[in-house]
UniProtKB/TrEMBL annotation:
Keywords: Methyltransferase, Porphyrin biosynthesis, S-adenosyl-L-methionine, Transferase
EC number: 2.1.1.107
Name of the featured protein: uroporphyrinogen-III C-methyltransferase
Pathway assigned in UniProt: Porphyrin-containing compound metabolism; siroheme biosynthesis; precorrin-2 from uroporphyrinogen III: step 1/1
Record-stated family: Belongs to the precorrin methyltransferase family.
All residue ranges annotated as the Tetrapyrrole methylase domain in the record: 7-215
CDD domains noted in UniProt: SUMT
InterPro entries given in the database record: 4pyrrol_Mease, 4pyrrol_Methylase_sf, 4pyrrole_Mease_sub1, 4pyrrole_Mease_sub2, CobA/CysG_C, Siro_Cobalamin_biosynth, Uropor_MeTrfase_CS
Segments passing through the bilayer: none
Pfam families: TP_methylase
Amino acid sequence: MHNIKPKITLVGAGPGDPDLLTLKAVKALAEANVVLYDALANEEILDYAPKNAIRIFVGKRIGNHAYTQDQINQLIVDNALTYGNVVRLKGGDPFIFGRGGEEVDFAESFGIETIVVPGISSVVAVPASQGISITKRGVSGSFWVITGTTSDRKLSSDVALAAQSSATVVILMGMHKLSQIIDLFQKEDKGNLPVAIIQNGTTAEEKVGVGTVDSILEVVKQKELGSPAIIVLGEVVRESNKLKGFYEEFLSKETIR
């Protein structure tokens, strides 16, 4: 174990489908001495690491935090100093609500070389898996991506601003705040705005519920949708080839009424 050169590679594992891992991620995993990984949607991804690589689960699941963020930061550095090449594997993209920036800053304060391998974010991939293009010419020229739950466990104040815009709104980690989110859109008179909720997107366990701001809470109850899920609010939901039929049927029912 002489001349160990510590190195940390932050790798985005993508939204869940192991085929949505990048080639760069696969190459980084192949060279890992240690893999510290989050609660991944698909642990098959770990098979790309060498058989003798040390694998350490450091993920957070609601109500069960294996480690605090400070402990994770320290583990990354300790393992790099002891074993050399550490891959820190995070779901989606490491820099989108993944606290990857904090991990890089901490590692660099020890003078350790860090590399970031971007991942395909669920923000775009999960809506795309349902045919939802989050921007579409003539329909939506921009999108907001918001975390439903801020670090102090409150709903982000950006949701109220987003509800006033004509942009597509994509909310992650928002299922526990769904009724508050819906209230804010109803206040802006957007009861008929299409909404899709996609649970476990891009995986075999994927479940989808579609409706409008006014009807989505009922849909969630019927379909028993829960976390982890992505909430998409916007006219682009209606444009999806996969979901179009629902809205055509829905609108004809509304007209009959």
